[in-house]
């Protein structure tokens, strides 16, 4: 997969700009706050249909303008794809795929595949379980539309169950009426759990390979998927767990068991990384996970996704920077940085100036 060109109109700092990209390594060089990350934000928006920086999408509109536009032209293995997005100051957006407006975000997912990494992705290892669930959800939604719809239905059923927990005044009446939501939640949770467990099983060897490469063979990483329940009888266990926890959920006003509470643990040489790993080790594990994500998407969709690396070089020494570029050179890679040392791999250099 290749991004051939990107057009930005009144998007963030860009009035009207068009960028052309080579099929391999592209390096966007410029001073801080000149708009390098804005380019990657626009590209990744066309992958997942939302910004990775803000939930208020009117913020992407250039100052004092009424709307913004982005357009990406992509070459895929068997066909070309064109993605356009329009934003206005009324918090509304519209997306077109090959000139046709989409009605649901699921229609966009999988049309273009990409992996995004920045120093902020350290939160993937260090922060709350929500970050690790998001990591799994983005991979699975890009490679499996059924999963995306399952997740949406699960969230709706969970919201309905939580609403019932909050509004019920009598636990006896609640116990008699909540069963329909329990069974619906269990059915969806079991399917999501199986997809995530399969993903971690597939992802682990790639993460181990990437960690071994980045650490020069000094560190072995292990991924462990932690769920409220485990095993082939997941559904039966969860249903019993929901019934057992009804009094606790009633008091708290929300559902305490389910895939919305799941987690991934990471270990380096047998030591849990989140609590005991150094910041350097946490960063390397996060990068290894992103490189593994690159490989798993390639395996699942049959072609290389784009790799977007935002200011990653500032966090790596010269040796690891070189290793990273060499490792990713088979995929189209777009890197942002303030300075770039030449390497022995051909790179398309895009230098940003104030008037870009």
Give your account of this protein's structure:
The chain is α/β, with parallel strands linked by helices. The chain has two domains: about 1-115 and about 315-355, Rossmann fold (3-Layer(aba) Sandwich); about 120-300, Up-down Bundle (Glutathione S-transferase Yfyf (Class Pi), Chain A, domain 2), CATH 1.20.1050.90. Helices cover about 45% and strands about 20% of the residues. It contains eleven helices and 14 strands. The chain has helices spanning about 35-50, 125, 130-145, 145-165, 170-175, 180-215, 235-245, 245-250, 275, 280-300, 320-330; strands at about 1-10, 15-20, 25-30, 65-75, 80-90, 95, 100, 115, 220-225, 265-270, 270, 305-310, 335, 345-350. β10 (about 265-270) and β11 form a beta hairpin. α3 crosses α4 (about 145-165) and α4 packs across α6 (about 180-215).
Bulk shape: globular
What is the CATH level 1 assignment of the largest domain? Mainly Alpha
- Order of SSEs, N→C? EEEHEEEEEHHHHHEHHEEHHEHEE
Low-confidence runs of at least 5 consecutive residues = none
How much helix, percentage-wise, in residues?
40-55%
Count of runs of 4 or more consecutive helical residues: 11
The third-level CATH topology of the largest domain is Glutathione S-transferase Yfyf (Class Pi), Chain A, domain 2
For the record, the CATH architecture of the largest domain stands as: Up-down Bundle
For the sheet with most strands, the description reads: 6 strands, antiparallel
> What Rg, in angstroms, do the CA atoms define?
22 Å
Portion in strands: 15-25%
Count of distinct structural domains: 2
């Amino acid at each position: 997969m290749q991004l051939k060109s990107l057009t930005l109109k009144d998007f963030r700092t860009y009035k009207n700009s068009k960028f052309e990209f080579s099929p391999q390594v592209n390096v966007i060089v410029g001073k801080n706050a000149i708009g390098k990350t804005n380019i990657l934000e626009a590209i990744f928006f066309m992958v997942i249909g939302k910004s990775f920086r803000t939930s208020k999408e009117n913020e992407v509109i250039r100052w004092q303008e009424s709307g913004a536009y982005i357009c990406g032209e992509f070459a895929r293995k068997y066909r070309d794809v064109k993605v356009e997005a329009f934003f206005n100051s009324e918090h509304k957006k519209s997306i077109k795929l090959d000139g046709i407006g989409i009605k649901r975000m699921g229609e966009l997912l999988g049309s273009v595949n990409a992996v995004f990494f920045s120093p902020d992705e350290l939160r993937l290892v260090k922060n709350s379980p929500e970050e690790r669930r998001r990591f799994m959800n983005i991979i699975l939604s890009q490679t499996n539309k059924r999963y995306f719809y399952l997740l949406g239905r699960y969230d709706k059923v969970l919201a309905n169950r939580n609403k019932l927990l909050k509004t019920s005044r009598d636990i006896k009446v609640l116990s008699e009426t909540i069963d329909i939501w329990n069974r619906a939640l269990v059915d969806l949770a079991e399917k999501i759990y199986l997809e995530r467990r399969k993903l971690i099983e597939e992802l682990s060897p790639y993460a181990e390979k990437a960690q071994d490469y980045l650490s020069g063979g000094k560190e072995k990483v292990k991924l462990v998927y932690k769920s409220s329940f485990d095993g082939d009888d997941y559904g039966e266990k969860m249903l019993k767990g929901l019934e057992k926890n009804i009094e606790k959920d009633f008091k708290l006003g929300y559902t305490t068991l389910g895939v919305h509470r799941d987690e991934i643990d990471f270990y380096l040489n047998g030591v849990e990384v989140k609590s005991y790993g150094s910041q350097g080790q946490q960063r390397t594990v996060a990068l290894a996970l992103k490189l593994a994500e690159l490989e798993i998407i390639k395996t699942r969709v049959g072609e290389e996704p784009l790799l977007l690396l935002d200011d990653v070089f500032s966090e790596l020494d010269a040796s690891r920077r070189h290793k990273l570029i060499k490792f990713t050179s088979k995929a189209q890679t777009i890197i942002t940085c303030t300075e770039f040392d030449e390497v022995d791999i051909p790179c398309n250099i895009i230098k940003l100036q104030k008037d870009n």
